[in-house]
Design a protein that fits this description.
Layout (H helix, E strand, L loop, with lengths): L16 E2 L9 H6 L10 H18 L6 E5 L2 H12 L5 E6 L2 H12 L3 E6 L8 H10 L5 E5 L1 E2 L4 E2 L3 H9 L3 E5 L18 E3 L12 E6 L1 H8 L12 H4 L15 H17 L1 H21 L15 E5 L6 H12 L1 E2 L1 E2 L8 E5 L7 H17 L8 H12 L1
Parallel strand pairs: 1-12, 3-4, 3-5, 5-8, 8-9
Antiparallel strand pairs: 2-10, 6-7, 9-10, 11-14, 13-14
Helix pairs in contact: 2-9, 5-6, 10-12, 10-13, 11-12, 12-13
The protein binds pyridoxal-5'-phosphate (PLP).
Length: about 400
């Protein structure tokens, strides 16, 4: 049969509960927004939506930065845009490397000709601010310091507030990746003195992948405009892209209309709930998960003060076939969780409770599926105990 004469099956992907490192499930209102009629990129109605999306994003990032918008492309596009626009040949850039995404940033700095100063920590520990201070004092001038706020490969939430101040003192720009933290934990761009901050839409925002919310301080914009050479990636040149996301509305590339509709709706959902209430819900759902997992005999990989509520890394007990268990969760229970990466491959699972999935109901669904699988393997000691423990932890939190 030729491709032309063959009939392809009906398109109907399974409905899964997405509790991995992203994407997360979409809110029904976001799904509806995706089927709205498409508009031209200079249509007055669409331009109003753009302005509103920028305003909603400023509230989420807690910033007054004028240039706050969704860049076309996934989280990695935000990462590359920020670094490609900031780094010129020979610029010294310090990058915190304590997981896969820090490694990715370091590689991008190298590719754009930057002089990389790596500040390392173990996969599961935060970067020590004292080490950053040391680098700023002894290896300067440093053009920028770049950190991952929520390291999705390890489950670490990096404390940031102190570091922004240090960067200001030493005239370094502060770059922060908030792909897995934005919408799930506090991100305070202005009060933490963050100059360039990017995120992703498919993690705690419950919107489809494909946009990278981005915000730049005036200091960052000045640094970009003061470059000696043009940005090496035309598609990500923020000096050019800014001209579309400001009064001039100069065409640079066609923005993904439907994704912007979806993001605007996702942001409305988030701000209707309220940021503090949302962060508190993430915190309580994570505590419920921790307690339930402990009742099943699992241990967590990250020490208490540095846990990222939206992504939990849990150690695989010895003798448990981690891949088979994950496969059973997916195939028999329609639940996706993530495997470990890099040095944590085979050693941990990564469980995401992102946005609307950060609820007690979701935690109980996962725990009860895990209980069934463990019982079938003869590994469950007290049936139901994890559910009761999780519920109590949620109510007590
Ligand atoms: C997911 C993620 C990214 C990359 O986002 P993509 O949308 O997959 O390109 C970057 N940084 C962190 C911390 C992430 O979790």
């Amino acid at each position: 049969m030729t491709t032309e004469s063959k009939s392809f099956g009906e398109f109907s992907p399974p409905v899964r509960l997405l509790l991995g490192p992203g994407p997360s499930n979409l809110h029904p209102r976001v799904v509806r927004a995706l089927s709205a009629p498409i508009l031209g990129y200079l249509d007055p109605y669409f331009l109003t939506l753009l302005d509103e999306t920028m305003e909603l994003l400023r509230a989420l990032f807690r910033t007054a930065n004028r240039l706050t918008f969704p860049l076309s492309g996934p989280g990695t596009a935000g990462m590359e845009a920020v670094l490609a626009n900031m780094v010129e040949a020979g610029d010294r850039v310090a990058v915190g490397v304590n997981g896969l995404f820090g490694q990715r940033m370091a590689e991008i700095v190298r590719r754009h000709g930057g002089e990389l100063i790596e500040i390392a920590a173990a996969w599961g520990s935060p970067i020590d601010p004292a080490q950053i201070e040391e680098v700023l004092k002894t290896r300067g001038p440093i053009k920028a310091v770049a950190l991952i706020h929520g390291e999705t490969s390890t489950g670490v939430l990096q404390p940031l507030s102190e570091i922004g101040r240090l960067c200001r003192e030493h005239q370094a720009l502060f770059i922060v990746d908030t792909v897995t933290s934005l919408g799930g934990a506090a991100v305070e761009v202005d009060s933490w003195h963050i100059d360039l901050c990017y995120s992703g839409t498919q993690k705690c925002l419950n919107a489809p992948p494909g946009l990278s919310p981005l915000t730049l301080s005036d200091r960052a914009l000045e640094a970009i405009k003061a470059r000696k050479s043009p940005c090496g990636v035309w598609y990500l040149d923020l000096k050019l892209i800014e001209q579309y996301w400001s009064r001039g509305r100069v065409y640079h590339h066609t923005p993904p209309t439907l994704l912007i509709y979806a993001l605007r709706e996702a942001l409305r959902v988030i701000l209707e709930e309220g940021l503090e209430a949302r962060f508190d819900r993430h915190r309580r759902a994570a505590l419920a998960l921790y307690s339930g997992l402990a009742a099943l005999g699992f241990e967590l990989h990250v020490p208490t003060p540095y846990r990222l509520p939206s992504l939990t890394t849990v150690k695989i007990p010895s003798g448990l076939d981690e891949a088979r268990t994950r496969q059973s969760l997916l195939e028999d229970h329609n639940i996706e969780i993530g495997a470990g990466l890099g040095p944590l491959r085979g050693k941990v699972w990564r469980i995401g409770l992102m946005g609307q999935n950060a609820t007690l109901a979701t935690v109980l669904t996962l725990l009860s599926a895990l209980e069934q699988i463990l019982r079938a393997q003869g590994r469950l000691e007290k049936p139901g105990a994890s559910l009761q423990t999780a519920e109590k932890a949620f109510l007590d939190a």
